[in-house]
Every structure is written in structure tokens, then in C-alpha cells.
Design a protein that fits this description.
6 strands; 8 helices; 204 residues; Rossmann fold; alpha/beta; globular; 6-stranded mixed sheet
């Protein structure tokens, strides 16, 4: 069955979030980080087994966060607003007429999942966090990456974006896989810019 692609209006910012639905089973929303493109999911070998496995277990909705992929562009402030992240998930659930769903996501996407779960616990069946990042800059109560390290990470990402070097930094085991590195370059170029991917590092 071909995935169904939809666009959920996020009223609070006057923009639409792109998402795709596939599979059969319990309702699950995969909350992506800010490096995503639902239209290109099938082009990256490393994602195919992951997405295919989920589709065999559940009805899976995959969201492109606002500002990346097939979703509408929003302002920098809106891109980093936790309430906008929660509103985006709400918009997809409402568009599909799902009263609730399990949330699944990794690294920076944990911020969006946690925000939504805190605001709307009655709409979350399960919360699954994979290598979650709750805070980059750190605070008095939450451990994080030192600000200097955050800035260095941002500069490195900007320098390596859409190059094979970025994939090698992200996954050293893929350093000699020329085809996978090439797929990653094409993935990065599909409506995700380095500024969008880095902005949550700086603000959170």
C-alpha cells in the first residue's frame, strides 16, 4: 500500500505540516528531528528497514517539522517554539481524526515529544524516546553540552552540510560507503538547510 501524504494546518502559525501515513496497527506518530523529508524517506537505505519495520507493526504517521522537508517555512522564532512543536503534532492528530497516539522519535525530536506529552497527556498512549536530547546548552538543573561545544558543533555542521563528510561525522562506520554518503548528500539537499538543523541546538 502506498503511503498517504497529507498536510495538516497549524493554525497558530498559519502554516501547514507535511506528513505521510502508512502501515496497519496501533496509531503511532514518528516525530522527526529537523533533518527530514517525507518525500525522500525511500531514497535512504539506512532508513528503509527502520520505517519498514514500524509499518509492519503500526499505523505510522511521519511528520516533517515546520521549516524542513515538505512542510512550510516558518520564522526562526516559530521554528524554536515548543508550543509550535506541540501544535504541529496536534494538527496531524486532528487531521487524521486520531484522539490519541504513541509518539516515537529520536535526539532533538525528544524536545517536541516531551512538550506535547506535558501539554496533552490524554492524547499520548506511549512515549518512546530514542537517544533523547532534553537540553543542549544546559542549565542549573539539566545537564547539557557546554555552550562553547554547542557553538563548535554548529560551525562544524555548517561547514560539512550536504557533503560526504557530514555522514562520516554522524556515522563513522559509513565512512567507506560511498553510495550511502552520496544518498545522505541528496537527503540533506531536499529542503533542509543547515540553519534549520542547527537552530534548536542554539536555543535549547
Amino acid at each position: 500500500m502506498e503511503p498517504k501524504v497529507g498536510y495538516a494546518p497549524v493554525a497558530s502559525v498559519g502554516a501547514s505540516a507535511a506528513y505521510r501515513v502508512s502501515g496497519i496497527g496501533p496509531r503511532t506518530v514518528f516525530v522527526s528531528n529537523w533533518i527530514s523529508n517525507i518525500d525522500a524517506l525511500a531514497t535512504l537505505d539506512v532508513f528503509r528497514p527502520f520505517v519498514g519495520g514500524l509499518e509492519s507493526l503500526c499505523t505510522l504517521a511521519v511528520i516533517d517539522q515546520l521549516g524542513v522537508g515538505q512542510s512550510d517555512i516558518v520564522s526562526r522564532d516559530q521554528l524554536t517554539d515548543r508550543r509550535v512543536w506541540a501544535d504541529t503534532i496536534t494538527a496531524v492528530l486532528d487531521r487524521e481524526r486520531w484522539s490519541s497516539a504513541s509518539l516515537l522519535g529520536w535526539d532533538q525530536a525528544a524536545l517536541a515529544q516531551i512538550a506535547f506529552a506535558a501539554m496533552y497527556p490524554q492524547r499520548v498512549d506511549k512515549l518512546v524516546l530514542i537517544n533523547p536530547v532534553a537540553c543542549y546548552a544546559g542549565s542549573e538543573t539539566v545537564a547539557g553540552v557546554l555552550p562553547a561545544t554547542v557553538e563548535e558543533s554548529v560551525q562544524l555542521t555548517m561547514a560539512l552540510w550536504a557533503t560526504p563528510g557530514f555522514m562520516r561525522m554522524l556515522s563513522p562506520s559509513a565512512a567507506d560507503d560511498a553510495e550511502l554518503c552520496d544518498q545522505w548528500v541528496r537527503w540533506c539537499c531536499r529542503r533542509t538547510c543547515p540553519t534549520s538543523s542547527n537552530v534548536s541546538h542554539v536555543r535549547h
